[in-house]
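Task card 7
Instruction: Convert sequence to structure tokens.
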Amino acid sequence: MTQQTETLPTEQRQKIAAGTRIKLAGGAVLVVALIALGAVPRLIRQRDALAAVRESPVTHPVVTTLHPQMGEPTSALLLPGNIEPLYGASVYARTEGYVDRRNVDIGSRVKAGQVLAVISSPEVDQQLLQARATLAQSEAALKQANASLEQAKANAELARLTKERDLPLGEQHAISQQIVDEAVQDYNARVADVDAAEANIAAARANVTANKANVARLEQLQGFERVVAPFDGVITARNVERGDLVSTGSASTGKPLFSIAQSGTLRIQIDVPQSEAVNIQDGEKAAVTVKEHLGREYTGTIVRSASSLDSAARTMLTEVQVDNADGSLLPGMYAQVKFTLGQQRRSLIIPTSSLVIDHSGMHVVTIEDGSKIHFVPVAIGRDMGTQVEVLSGIRSSDVLVASPSDLLHEGQDVQVR
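Output:
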């Protein structure tokens, strides 16, 4: 209070203090009201934003659904496959040298045993000449050992006769005992000579055998100078030219000289879905078509199957062989193989956009309990462009997501349109 108010009466001073307190309270109420006016709209906006987040399509995605359509009943199964040669081979060099002559090129049709190229290998030729000379020497040594054996046998026989003649004379004291002893010892020495000659012959024969084996090895290496076709077929690759230096090798050490494929009979490997695997039997016929020969149908034969299913794709690998004597089919072509089944079957048709393909195979996305996502694996049959045939995995009453997003996951809640 000021000095003037202090001089006022007590009752008047109390009235002034009460008025001041009223003004201060009113100011406080005004400040609180102003703060409330600013906070309430903000709280309303936060509530609306939270409600929008809860109803956002990110939290509950909106999906379009459809039902699978029933396909026409059929007794045929049409599946794709790649045409491959019945067997093929990569031809490597088995001897080192330079390519002296090349007789074929890619696309050349060859017969088994036909010379594809000739390799000049002078080192092998010289080694073979040396080995043949060594063999001739060992054969001559064997003949000499045989002659020595005959001579040793003759000497042993003479010594035996001398011993048998001198022994009675020695008993009669007609000759000295020294002469008798010398005759016995000479005979024993000649017998030892025979044993030694026989051992020399065994060693000479072994030497001849070893030299013959070495000659045969080098002759075989010399034969490898002629690179020949292992079977009838077509040259599909050629990696050498005349004058190239080649060395012995394998698939792990270098390129082959040639690659050859047998194309008289071709094979097609098809993945048959589980629903039809039991109906595929070896020996049955199948129709094969390729788009490059429209209107022409090739007859194939089921020759073998894996007799077990792939645990990931639920399919059975089956091989169909096709006669290609006219050469109209080429390895690597894409073909359609139609199997005739023993009984009719019905399938479901869905849009191709309903399929989900990932590392675990093909799936469709179904709606369960009105709003929950469920991924179902399916087996696929014919591909009809915008539509695809489903052989197993779903029913016609199932509700499918028409175009499933990559953001969908198992058990997620969605809003169905």
